[in-house]
Design brief:
Elements: H1 3-19, E1 31-35, E2 39-43, E3 57-61, H2 62-67, H3 77-90, H4 104-109, E4 114-118, H5 121-127, H6 132-140, E5 144-147, H7 154-171, E6 177-180, E7 184-189, H8 192-209, H9 223-237, E8 243-247, H10 250-255, H11 271-277, E9 282-284, H12 294-309, E10 315-318, E11 322-327, H13 330-350, H14 361-369, H15 371-381
Parallel strand pairs: 5-6, 9-10
Antiparallel strand pairs: 1-2, 1-4, 2-3, 4-7, 6-7, 8-11, 10-11
Length: about 375
Amino acid sequence: MNSRDMAIEQLIKISRFYGENPEYVLLGGGNTSWKDEQMMYVKASGYALGSIDRSGFASMSMEALNAVWDKEYSSDEEVREQQVLTDMMDARMPGETARPSVEALLHSFIPSSYVVHLHPALVNGLTCGKRGKAAAEEMFGDSMVWVPSVNPGYILAREARSHALNHQKKTGGFPELILLENHGVFIGADTPEGIKESYTQLMNALKQQAEREPDLSPLAIDSRRQQVLQQGIRRACSDSRRAVVGMMNHELERFLTDREACHPLSSAFTPDHLLYSGHTPLWVSADLFERDDPVSEIEQKVGEYEKREGVFPKSAAVQHTGIFGIGSNARQAESACLVFLDTLKTAVYSESFGGPSFMSQERIDFIRSWEVERYRAKVQENQ
């Protein structure tokens, strides 16, 4: 086995190490890479880190990736994104067919052999906190750079690169942490051990700052309400197979007392939250279940949501009852419920950093119409 093959085996190993740990990775979230001067192997879209093998990485030309920074793209968002996508696909090595991660460009400029990008709830408590940037500067000083929230893809990579290079010029060293507002963190190192050491230090520092841990001890869900909710949702979409999966715990009990208390769960913190559990949950008051025809009431609320938001809800927050993931099958509903739980944890951790700060409506609108997100949604729909 040559040195490149050995490095890729180490890349697979560290990818699975984090991908199998729910403290770090949720569903297919995050991406990893390894590179030398000639080429980069980066996680391909549609693959989960926890079970990834060599086929889950796209091989790309470093020369072609580096050339992207010298190009000028259209000022029109839709045209620009198509131009960048074309260049990214053309940057693949001959014979490569996998679609590289949308964040491949961001991986490419970090001058480390290995790069691991993750978005644990604990990290996003910081990156999605109103005082996140100030707290990060206090905690990590010159070892990190903070990238304000911008549209994902090329724009994010361009902004992150600019901030990192400015930091390097100012301090003489490339940042150890690249913290992305409403997104997560990038960490690079020349060895897998270096990656692990940096992530351990980051997580330990955040745990010391966290004022409290979310209380996820489970509570029973009112089965009648869940059945009514499911019947109303199925009637609203004329799909008797539409799945609804619920969850309730002591932390949710605090947030679901009324709509105002639920505000920290009312929008998307990150792109993954948006993809899996939607940009905002359907809110259902408890008194609705005591009316003469609660199923019809739910059907009407879902219809109003769909008309107002332009999409069918992927999640619901039911007062005094629980959170519910909604999907065309049980797996999708479970995923939506699980990601909503991550929203809950992020909201709790953000309390230590000034309180919750969601993605802006402009950012949400961009992602909802973004070709890359439509592609990811299609992959999810087919799972």
